[in-house]
Amino acid sequence: MTTALTENPHVMGWVAEMAKLCQPDRIHWCDGSEAEKKAMTEQAVREGILIPLNQDKLPGCYLHRSSPADVARVEHRTFICTPTRDEAGPTNNWMAPDEAYRKLGGLYEGSMKGRTMYVVPYVMGPVGSPFSKIGVEITDSIYVVLSMRVMTRMGQAALDMLGMADDFNRGLHAMLDIDPEKRFICHFPEDNTIWSTSSNYGGNVLLGKKCLALRIGSYLGKQEGWLAEHMLILGVESPEGQTTYVAAAFPSACGKTNFAMMIPPKRFKGWKVWTVGDDIAWLRVAEDGRLWAINPEAGYFGVAPGTSGKSNPNALKTVQRDTIFTNVALAPDGTVWWEGMSDTPPEGLIDWKGQPWDPSSGEKAAHPNSRFCSPMINNPALSKMADDPEGVPISAIIFGGRRATTVPLVLQSFHWTHGVFLGATMGSETTAAATGKVGIVRRDPMAMLPFCGYDMGSYLAHWLEMRDRIKFPPKIFLVNWFRKGADGRFLWPGFGENMRVLKWVIDRAHVRVGGQETPVGWIPREGDLDLSFLKITSEDFEEATRVDRDEWREELESQIEWFDRLGPTLPKALHSQRQLLVDIIDALSGKRGGEAAS
Ligand code: GTP
Ligand code: SPV
Ligand code: MN
Predict the structure, then answer these.
(1) Cα-trace Rg, the chain
(2) Is 90 exceeded by the pLDDT of residue 595?
């Protein structure tokens, strides 16, 4: 056992209790030092957990291959364990706390015999910030320790910040035998505790991320009057040097990392986009009456496929050093490859399962949810505010999903409640970030469906209530980079070209550009979006930005089922908002008004 790094009786007592349960041979307290990283990396290489990559081309980079049945989040095995089912709400899986403690306790018992238990203290948010939260994750996975070191501020600094307080998240993770049948991700919001078993994949086991920063975080946010959101944070700097900060929620694998690291096209000379965060934002109201955001993370756990020098040059630069790649393909020269990195794959690839890859097999070389785990300091576009204890003031909030139809390229809400309505009813096609079928449209409010730690209706009520606390509320927008033409092509080129939409968003936030009112929100008029030097036909642009009354009438109709599912805690204001839009569309279409109007 390495010596404990704290005398905090709460930490010591809990670690002792968990050690008694799991019965490890050794306990290692992680201090976060370089020497520790070096020793653990060497051990991981010896044990085959990490494969060293070409250290000349990719210094400090390693490849990890997961078990083939452990490649994504498992929403059906993720539970919110509150005393009553109602507190978890209709969209979460629920398990009674005693049952969960009993069931997982049985799985943990003796599970670390012959193994090392690592104690990983970490801070979510800048060290010393009053808005940061402390966690301690106990794990028997060296891959988790090395990843937590990238994704959080890990080690001694966290224990120093905690001092003798009892205010820390207690996370317990055991790999077991990675059997999917023993896999559970259980959250106990009342105990500030997370228990995770039988997985070694990112969102299931890096407990600071989705489990603490979003599920437990959202629960704390409701109680303490702030918001924990699945949002990127970026700053747009104008040629005059004015920086406007924007937060954006897109569901998993729907473009947050890409948007947060965007390089504006040539047309936008002198404009710069700076990354504050790429996945999670904690938002609170400051004394100046504005909404301020911090990124609780210190690294990026990003989707590899589709990342190229064309689509996201900043991400490609970010992953050139000190990066752990998971489930990507390995090239003979010790570099990595994934679908979309280049048009022609290198010869002689080893696929993500460790087998020689046959390009004609129809199989992917990299898993569709393969990921890179890189420190944020590698990002050439990192905002100088990324580590600021106060965070940044937010002028606009963007919601966005992956929708082949209906939702236009960009839409501005009429007001806060309408914006919350657009977020609450957001739909998106499912992706490889979670197990299950890909490409099914499902409602994913604020991109938080898999991450809200309590009842969804109460969460939406909390969003509405936040309005009263914010003197200068951000403007709310809805975007869709993924609308398709009749031929199945994406209509909008996306990636860096999204700057054109972002520019309209910040101009609208500062009230300096026009727009056109439609029944469902404001859209850019012809000429409002700068399309110069963009290769897009006017038909495609028209199709990408169009608000079709019939499509929206259907969309609004299909929301009834969603609202019914959310049940009695869904705020009345959102029902009224939906009915109002129905009435407006019906009136414009010359149909009889809805009930409210008749
Ligand atoms: P999580 O880390 O899972 O929360 O995902 P994310 O929201 O950060 O998604 P990311 O930026 O990694 O993008 C996921 C996928 O969407 C990648 O394969 C991208 O290539 C693709 N993508 C991102 N932006 C765009 C866009 O503007 N247009 C199109 N067509 N695809 C995009
Ligand atoms: C997501 O799925 O939204 C992610 C990756 O950001 S994970 O950390 O696995 O949740
Ligand atoms: Mn995410």
Answers:
(1) 24
(2) no
Q: What is the CB < 6 Å shell around ligand 1?
A: 250, 252-258, 278-279, 302-303, 305-306, 311, 433, 481-482, 490, 494-495, 498
409 and 443 inside one domain: yes
Identify the residue whose C-alpha is closest to ligand 2 atom 3: 252
Q: Are residues 408 and 533 in the same domain?
A: yes
Residue with the smallest CA separation from ligand 1 atom 15 is: 253
pLDDT at 150 over 90: yes
Check which CATH number belongs to the domain holding 110 and give it.
3.40.449.10
**417 shares its domain with 527:** yes
| 314 alpha carbon, distance to own chain's centre | 18
* Same-domain status, 475 and 516: yes
Out of 147, 210, 449, mutate this one to test ligand 2's pocket (max ligand atoms within 8 Å of CB): namely 210
Residue 207: nearest ligand to its CA? 2
Q: Is residue 532 domain-shared with residue 468, that is, in the same domain?
A: yes
Dump pLDDT digits (tens) for 306-360: 999 999 999 999 999 999 999 999 999 999 999 999 999 999 999 999 999 999 9
In a domain, 1, yes or no: no
Question: Are residues 547 and 572 both part of a single domain?
Answer: yes
Per-residue pLDDT band for 598 (boundaries 50, 70, 90) equals: very low
Residues 406 and 264 in one domain: yes
Whether 77 has a pLDDT exceeding 80, the answer reads yes
In a domain, 60, yes or no: no
At 78, the pLDDT band (50, 70, 90 cuts) reads: very high
Residue 45 lies in a domain: yes
Q: Which atom number of ligand 2 is nearest to the Cα of residue 303?
A: 5
The neighbour count for residue 116, using CB atoms within 10 Å, is: 19
* Res 465 pLDDT > 60: yes
Point out the residues that are catalytic.
254
Is residue 306 located within the same domain as residue 439?
no
Q: How many CB atoms lie within 10 A of CB 290?
A: 17
CA distance 576 to 150: 45
Residue 1 is predicted with a pLDDT of: 67
Nearest CA to ligand 1 atom 24: 255
CA 251–ligand 3 middle distance (angstroms)? 7
Distance in Å, CA 155 to ligand 1 centroid: 31
- Ligand 2 centroid to Cα of residue 354, in Å, is 23
Residue 355 burial (C-beta neighbours within 10 Å; 0-12, 13-18, 19+): exposed
Please report the pLDDT score of residue 592 as a whole number: 63
What's the confidence (pLDDT) of residue 2?
82
Structural domain span for residue 137: 9-49+77-225
CB burial of residue 156 (10 Å; 0-12, 13-18, 19+): middle
Q: Give the residue, by CA position, lying nearest to ligand 2 atom 9.
A: 203
Q: Per-residue pLDDT for 51 more than 60?
A: yes
Q: Which atom of ligand 2 is nearest to the CA of 210?
A: 10
Looking at the structure of the chain, the number of domains it has is 3
| CB-based contact 368:79 (threshold 8 Å) | no
What spacing in Å lies between the alpha carbon of 297 and ligand 2's midpoint? 13
Predicted TM-score (pTM) of this structure: 0.97
Residue 580: what are its φ and ψ, rounded to 5°? -60, -45
The SS3 of residue 265 is: coil
**Most informative mutation of 257, 327, 500 for ligand 1 (most atoms within 8 A of CB):** 257
% pLDDT > 90, the chain: 97
Structure tokens, 183: 């896999």
Which CATH number is 326's domain given? Answer: 2.170.8.10
